From TrEMBL:
Superkingdom field: Bacteria
UniProt signal peptide: none
Protein source organism: Martelella mangrovi
SMART domains reported for this sequence: PKS_KR (SM00822)
Protein name (record): 3-oxoacyl-[acyl-carrier protein] reductase
EC identifiers of the protein: 1.1.1.100
UniProt similarity note: Belongs to the short-chain dehydrogenases/reductases (SDR) family.
């Protein structure tokens, strides 16, 4: 393995990035942030179509729960671009049911998207990055995985906790191969998914967030850009809290 380069100013010039969950609030903001920073971005989601007003973005429908679709996607990216420099895992769904009212179907659905939707692309892309000798993976975890939930149910907390552990394993296994893995743990971010939470009992920004507002997708996107860029060349296995001060860990 070549020595890991020293950290340098943030950019994504010439990089190939794969984003899952790109049609959602955080995924869309991340896709555009990476493209603006110089990357060619393969933006994916379960939606049939999605519009991105940027020439460096290529959209493709992709189901993260399918290993077959995962293998086909990674093979196509390698055929078209020769490499994958960054993998950003934003696909996710949420549940609010308390433990006693949760169902087997709910647990399977939440774990399938939030956990296997990380496992599938990570295990397909890891050997690609190891062969290259360099690559960065960033998964969306959650503050819920660190404090036991904000307004989400146990299935969501369990899935995100597993993602935190998985990415730390990948960071250790990949360090000698130049493969980085980190986690973003957002607090409440105003996205369509968060709207399903605010219809229930949810924290107030003034009462629970020291910085006085909920997050915006761009807050998370810029943190992801940092972890994908050369600015973070001595950071791996970290859980980066981006939550307005709700958790000071």
């Amino acid at each position: 393995m070549s020595p890991i380069p020293v950290s340098a100013p943030a950019h994504m010039n010439g990089k190939i990035a794969l984003v899952t969950g790109a049609a959602g609030g955080i995924g869309r903001a991340t896709t555009l942030a990476l493209a603006e920073a110089g990357a060619t971005v393969i933006a994916t989601d379960i939606a049939g179509t999605a519009e991105f007003d940027h020439p460096a973005v290529r959209y493709r429908r992709y189901d993260v729960t399918s290993r077959e679709e995962t293998d086909a996607l990674v093979a196509d990216i390698r055929s078209d671009h020769g490499r994958i420099d960054a993998l950003i895992l934003c696909a996710g769904t949420i549940s609010h049911r308390p433990l006693g009212k949760s169902t087997d179907e709910e647990w399977r659905a939440i774990l399938d998207v939030n956990l296997m939707g990380v496992v599938n692309p990570v295990r397909a892309v890891f050997p690609v990055m190891a062969e290259q000798g360099m690559g960065k993976m960033v998964a969306l975890g959650s503050i819920a995985a660190k404090i036991g939930g904000v307004a989400s149910g146990p299935s969501y907390v369990a899935a995100k906790s597993a993602v935190h552990g998985l990415m730390k394993w990948v960071a250790k296994a990949g360090a000698s191969k130049g493969v980085y893995a980190s986690i973003i743990a957002p607090g409440p971010v105003e996205t369509p998914m968060w709207e399903t939470v605010t219809q229930r009992a949810a924290p107030s920004a003034n009462g629970n967030v020291p910085l006085g507002r909920f997050g915006q997708p761009e807050d998370i996107a810029q943190a992801i850009l940092f972890l994908c860029s050369p600015a973070s060349n001595w950071i791996t296995g970290t859980v980066l809290d981006v939550n307005g001060g709700m958790l000071m860990d």
